Every structure is written in structure tokens, then in C-alpha cells.
Amino acid sequence: MIQCRECEHFHQREDGEVAFTCSPFENIKEPSCLVKWQLIKLDTMVRAYQATLRMYERLAPLQERMFRHMEREIEDQEDADSWKQSLDDDDDEYEEDEDTQAHW
What is the pLDDT of residues 14-24, one digit of tens each? Predict the structure, then answer.
């Protein structure tokens, strides 16, 4: 079995990061290369998921503040519109009184 560091598709950058130019559809040399390629892709997916989680952790306090602010805004708006509700209730009572008087 060939070691990845001995393969022509293996590249190591100056910062130590490893890169591969192999593709499972074009230039895999050995069956074990496919397994290694899958592990590399899986590791990439896990790192991306962990980065997403870290971003969500940073956003969580901001989202919490936004939700509290929105709830206060909605409550304030409902309080401000409460006089409309009481007028609508009075109008309904007035209409019911007119209906009962019309039958007599």
C-alpha cells in the first residue's frame, strides 16, 4: 500500500496543512486511496459543522436579546392598540341593543 506522502497527488503547504489533488473519479491509484479520500472528506465535513456550531454559539446571545426586544415591541403595540379593542366591544354592545329594540 502506497503512503499518501509518497504519492504525486500529496502536497504539504508551508504551514503544515496537507492538500490532495486526487479525485476518486479520475486518478485514484489504489483501493485504499478511496478510503483515505473518504476520511479526508468526512473530516472536512466535521470541521465545517464545528465551525457552524461555534458561529451559532456566538450568535445565541444576540438572538436572545433580539427575541426579548421583539416581545417587548409586540407587547407595547398590543397595549397601545388596547383602546381600539375596547371601542370595538362598545360598538358590538351598541349594535346588540339596537337589534333588541328593533324587535319590540
Answer: 888 888 888 88
